[in-house]
Amino acid sequence: MRIYELTVSDKAYNVKVKSFSSHQAELEVNGKLIKVDVKAIGDDLVGKPVTRPIALSAGSPARTAPVSSSKMPVAGAGAITAPIPGAILEIFVKEGQEVKAGQPVLKMEAMKMENVIQSHLDGTILSISVHPKDAVSQGQELMTVG
Fold first, then answer.
1. CA distance from start to end of the chain
2. 30-87: per-residue pLDDT in tens?
3. All domains of the chain, ordered by start, with CATH?
4. pTM reported for the whole predicted model
């Protein structure tokens, strides 16, 4: 379980990430359990700060809070990276295959949940850096699209 201390508009929040998938996150914010819809993950993991939707109180609209990526490996713009640590389950594409933005390219397991990772751009799969059963770190390059 990851625990973050976030400050949004000078207000401190203690956030425990109970589960996080490509579609939904379950967070404990200041002791209160909150479910949050996730629209996209992985697009901004290129060595710069990442923002994720996070509901800060029951009934409030989702807002963004920064999540530090300072310890993540830096990857190129065409890199598809692991949004969270996990294990590769299945790869849906091959090198040389054309893909469209939003197309599923692989499935990984993270925090006991299956996550389908999608391409963030149109192009050709130039390289695949992982194999099924590989363990990956957050921000690790999984494949490159060019």
1. 34
2. 889 888 877 654 544 444 444 444 444 444 444 444 443 333 334 456 889 898 899 9
3. 2-67 (no CATH), 79-145 (2.40.50.100)
4. 0.50
